[in-house]
Amino acid sequence: MAARYWQHPNASHRALRWGVVALVVAGVGAYPVYKAGLGTGAAMGAAVALIASACVVGEKLWPLLVWWRKRGAPVPAPTPADVGTAKGILAGLVAQQWFEETALRSLGDPAPMPVPWSSTERR
């Protein structure tokens, strides 16, 4: 699955974009910790925690943002002309299906159907 992901045309741009976002979040979050004098270790821990948080939030927030961007205006109601066209198309398709079934089941054949039978010799 990972190989297929990297074959996606925008995969490299997506990975680069999320990498830059993670670095910016880590830098912005770790800088105040470092300046507060808590040490490099605490700043690195804050950076790692912020990167992990940004990845989790981004992973859950991304589908919501994509949906919100694509939702657009509601679909307009069909016009009477659209309904008439759809009815005509549906009527044609149903008539074609019935015609094919009639031919398949030999319903238009006037000859009687042969029915195999045998006597049970009971009276």
- Rg (CA only): 34 Å
What structural class do you assign from the helix and strand content?
A: mainly alpha
Helical segment count? 4
Largest sheet: none
H and E string: HHHH
Total DSSP E strands: 0
Distance between the termini: 73 Å
The residue ranges in which pLDDT falls below 50 over 5 or more consecutive positions are: none
Hey, roughly how much beta strand do the residues contain? under 5%
Helix content: over 70%
Q: Which outline best applies?
A: elongated
Overall pLDDT metric = 75
Describe this structure in words.
This protein has 123 residues and is an all-alpha fold. Helices cover 71% and strands 0% of the residues. Helix 2 crosses helix 3. The longest helix is centred in the middle third of the chain and has 31 residues, at 40-70. The protein is elongated, with a radius of gyration of 34 Å. The N and C termini lie far apart (73 Å). The relative contact order is 0.05.
Task: Map the helices and strands.
Blueprint: H1 2-7, H2 11-35, H3 40-70, H4 80-104
Helix pairs in contact: 2-3
Question: What's the short story on this structure?
Answer:
The N and C termini lie far apart (73 Å).
Name some characteristics of this structure:
mainly alpha, 0% strand, 123 residues, 4 helices
